[in-house]
Design a protein that fits this description.
The chain has 17 helices and eleven strands. By secondary structure, it is α/β, with parallel strands linked by helices. The chain has three domains: 5-40; 69-260 and 442-471, no CATH class; 280-429, Rossmann fold (3-Layer(aba) Sandwich), CATH 3.40.50.2000. The strands form two sheets. The chain has a six-stranded parallel sheet. Strands 8-7-9-10-11 form a five-stranded parallel sheet, sandwiched between helices.
């Protein structure tokens, strides 16, 4: 070992003391030597891996993230596997008729789209056959990567419960199931959450979850009725819920966009798609994508017949049976080639088709106010008339209103203005490819997930500020 001049001096002192000093003096000199060495050659602590804690690594300290998250940070619960991962592992049992394994693959994006036409070749990798009810899987995947996620519960402002309620409940909706079966997972997850310290501090008032199915699937009031009673369970009273369709009169629900098939990997891909949509030549006035229902007075059957009889102005994509279940390129082409798209209510008041239509730059036409009123306000704003048309269905039913004449009544400039509004909204209602983390986004943009999480954090912050003000 190389010693400094001072070190050699100390070594000489030791030899001298062994010859002429007492044992106490020897001990003191040795201590001086050791301290001298330690200060000159300090041992460096091991470097901290700051990429995350996923494999037992140390996460970035919460305070380092706070400047990027002015509304606070989000904690993601690590739930027992039965509430999410095991549902994915048993994907073949989630539907009584067909396997759901493809639908929830690729972190919820589904299989890559093949045989799709009407899309620029360089953008095809951004397209997937995405299921309309896969949002719970997508939100969980994105939450684990979000810039405002913290692994320190004590520093969190919001607590995300990644329970796949739609998958857990959906498997029982179309079978001869009991109310107990439909509520089993929901009751168990609330029991588990109720034992967690963050919940005990707030009674759930800073907690939120995502429901991948419409709110009506979780609002059973009586045992013999449809769906689960999840939302009516007492523990859910204070929990904020993100759902693909909200109850307009429930202040604890926020509607979030249905997933579409487009999942851009960068802002560049988003800009390319919007430019492409803007340039598209539209050869039809309007289009309708949907299927007939075997019920008396079915409005969608009326629209199909109307379009078939007005084939010069309207294009039809008949989705009878399961023809459109996984998406088809014919649907996309129809929307891309039309100025307007008809959006009647489906199983509920809202439809995924609304977002497929707008993604193609087509202007949605609604027949029920509840299909858009007080829905998706964080993403589409509070002025539906700026990007859509409303036609009272009663006039269409009694033949006093002509859909074609109403749509022809809009000037070219009015149509162009509405289309520009639709195109400006696209980034806010599509979901980015979840395989690319926020940190890897060199030219990212705020997508529907970002808008949703920012909205949750902002709402919780405003709620905290309001409580402090009332306490003063």
């Amino acid at each position: 070992m190389l010693l400094t001049k001072s070190s050699r001096h100390n070594d000489s002192s030791i030899r001298f003391c062994f010859n002429s000093c007492s044992k106490l003096s020897v001990i003191l000199v040795i201590q001086v030597f050791v301290l001298d060495f330690v200060f000159r050659f300090p041992v460096k602590p091991p470097a901290i891996d700051r990429k995350g804690e996923e494999e037992g690594r140390i996460a970035i300290p919460p305070e380092r993230k706070s400047e990027k998250c002015p509304n606070g940070m989000m904690y993601v619960y690590d739930l027992p596997a039965m509430f999410n991962q095991e549902l994915l592992d048993r994907c073949g049992d989630l539907d009584p008729w067909n396997s759901r394994c493809n639908a929830i693959s690729n972190r919820g994006l589904g299989p890559p789209a093949t045989g799709i036409s009407g899309v620029p070749e360089n953008l095809i990798p951004a397209w997937y056959w995405t299921d309309m009810f896969a949002g719970e899987v997508m939100y969980h995947s994105r939450a684990l990567q979000h810039k405002c996620r913290t692994t320190a519960a004590e520093s969190a402002a919001a607590f995300y419960i990644p329970f796949y309620a739609g998958l857990a409940v959906g498997k029982y909706l179309f079978t001869n199931s009991t109310a107990t079966e439909r509520d089993l997972y929901c009751e168990k997850v609330l029991t588990w959450i109720g034992d967690q310290p963050p919940w005990k501090r707030s009674n759930g008032s800073d907690h939120f979850t995502m429901l991948g199915r419409m709110t009506w699937d979780f609002r059973r009031s009586r045992d013999g009725d449809w769906g689960s009673s999840f939302i009516h369970m007492p523990a859910m009273k204070n929990v904020l819920r993100l759902a693909v369709e909200r109850d307009p009169w429930d202040p604890m629900e926020v509607s979030v966009p249905y997933p579409t098939g487009f999942h851009p990997r960068s802002k560049s891909e988003m800009d390319q798609w919007r430019s492409y949509v803007r340039r598209r030549r539209r050869t039809r006035l309007y289009t309708f994508v949907g299927a007939r229902r075997q019920v008396a007075g079915d409005f969608r059957t009326l629209l199909l017949n109307n379009c078939y009889n007005d084939s010069n102005s309207c294009r039809v994509v008949d989705c009878s049976g399961r023809r459109c279940y996984d998406g088809t390129s014919e649907i996309l082409e129809a929307f891309l080639s039309s100025e307007f798209c008809l959006q009647p209510r489906g199983d509920a008041f809202t439809r995924r088709s609304t977002f497929d239509c707008m993604l193609a730059g087509s202007i949605p036409v609604f027949f029920w106010n509840r299909s858009i009123d007080r829905q998706y306000e964080w993403f589409l704003g509070k002025s539906p008339a700026s990007f859509s048309v409303f036609i009272d269905r009663r006039g269409v039913k009694n033949r006093t209103t002509s859909i074609r004449k109403v749509l022809e009544g809009y000037s070219r400039d009015e149509v162009k203005k509405m289309r520009e509004t639709v195109i400006s909204l696209i980034p806010k209602f599509v979901y980015r490819n979840s395989s690319i983390s926020d940190e890897d986004q060199n030219e990212g943009f705020a997508d529907a997930f970002d808008v949703a999480i920012d909205g949750v954090l902002r709402r919780f912050k405003n709620s905290r500020n309001g409580r402090r003000k009332n306490q003063q």
